[in-house]
Specification:
This protein has 371 residues and is α+β, with helices and mostly antiparallel strands. The protein has 13 helices and 14 strands. It has a 7-stranded mixed β-sheet with strand order 2-12-9-14-7-5-6. It has a 5-stranded mixed β-sheet with strand order 1-11-10-13-8. A two-stranded antiparallel ribbon has the order 3-4. Helix 3 packs across helix 4 and helix 4 crosses helix 5.
Length: 371
């Protein structure tokens, strides 16, 4: 009896190794993996198999880690997870930026990211939390809150219609000379900007810190995400130096901005933007730009395909808390669109109340001046 009790239990189900040997064909291995992971494409399965040198058992274990949902945290936040770093336990699988976004974002769904590591690995951005010393962030926020009542909703042409922005904003430059040039020589959406302001005291003080941090993040991006560890084609060969800024104010959860790319007329191709958030935390969403022809070719629906294009590869949501610096990297504007998503509820900030102030530091390249 004792021998019977102590005897090891017989395995009821064979392992993949018992079904498949190392010398079996790739087709057989893929067929087995497809039966285990029917929702994963053949392309991803093949890449995963190659990364484990053809070992089906190792591939299976890695894919289980990649696809197993984590237990949700008791925070009440929809789609919240603390980190996707667990997925990095599978070496060689999901090893480049392009494949990462395809694996973790699904059509019609939103992937919520919070940690700097996840944001850098799965989006065209990187983020620095608690960017400024607390008092510096407070001083800057208070200074801009005094400016906010004079901000305006910008009007612009969209096809044949005049559209008003869903939030208020103002444009700032560093010098009086540049202020005059912007008013007379630059054109935005078919007209000149009348309200061009000189950067405030604290904006100028913070700009040098933003400059250093952004260039450091850009260098890290080049080394970890770009082909041959070189800047992207058409990206400026020079360091990024902020010399202008749009300051946006979102007053309450209903004020937002839809998916768009920033105007590159004076920034040039492969533009980089440093975006500093102050006040209320909001949700920043990005999605890949999907070509109209690619989507319409796959659909027999004659109706407009705008919503289908928007959801084709899903969305990524990035949480932007007070005093966080988001770096939009060189691939952002041409390959992705971004938005500030409306919020049903927000947590008021002790100083800003319901307001979020967002400073988007930009580098206007001299060779794109409108001469």
């Amino acid at each position: 009896m004792d021998a019977f009790v102590s005897r090891k239990k017989r395995k009821l189900y064979p392992t993949t190794a018992q079904f498949c040997r190392e010398d079996d064909s790739t087709d057989l291995k893929l067929a087995l993996l497809s039966s285990l992971f029917p929702y994963i494409s053949q392309e991803i399965l093949l890449d995963s198999l190659i990364s484990t040198e053809g070992c089906v058992e190792s591939t299976k274990k890695a894919l289980v880690i990649l696809t197993s949902p984590k237990k949700s945290l008791a925070t009440g936040s929809t789609g919240h997870q603390s980190s996707l770093s667990l997925y990095r336990q599978a070496p060689g699988i999901a090893s480049n930026l392009g494949s990462l976004s395809k694996k973790f974002t699904k059509k019609g769904q939103t992937l919520h990211l919070y940690s700097p590591e996840d944001i850098s690995d799965h989006s065209p951005c990187s983020i620095i939390h608690n960017f400024l010393p607390t008092q510096d962030a407070t001083d800057l926020l208070k200074e801009l809150l005094e400016e906010v009542p004079t901000f305006k909703r910008h009007k612009f042409k969209l096809f044949e219609n005049t559209v008003e922005s869903p939030h208020t904003a103002a444009f700032y430059v560093d010098s009086r000379e540049e202020q005059d040039r912007q008013r007379t020589e630059y054109s935005y959406n078919g007209s000149n900007l009348e309200d061009v302001r000189q950067s405030t005291h604290y904006m100028r003080a913070v700009a040098s810190k933003v400059c250093t941090a952004v260039n450091k993040e850009v260098s890290r991006r080049i080394q970890t995400a770009y082909p041959n560890r070189k800047k992207l084609k058409y990206q400026s060969p020079n360091d990024w130096i902020p010399n202008a800024a749009f300051v946006n104010c979102y007053d309450g959860g209903s004020e937002s901005v839809g998916f768009h790319s920033d105007q590159l007329t004076y920034l040039g191709p492969r533009a980089i933007i440093g975006s500093l958030s102050l006040g209320v935390a909001r949700e920043f969403r990005v999605r890949r730009t999907v070509a109209r022809d690619d989507v319409e070719a796959q659909s027999t629906n004659p109706e407009p395909q705008k919503s289908i294009r928007a959801d084709e590869e899903g969305q990524i949501s990035i949480h932007l808390p007070h005093n966080s610096l988001l770096v939009m990297h060189a691939e952002m504007q041409e390959e992705w669109k971004h938005s500030i998503h409306p919020a049903n509820t927000i947590d008021p900030h002790p100083i800003a109340g319901n307001k979020r102030i967002n400073i988007t530091y930009r580098h206007y390249r001299e060779n794109f001046h409108p001469r």
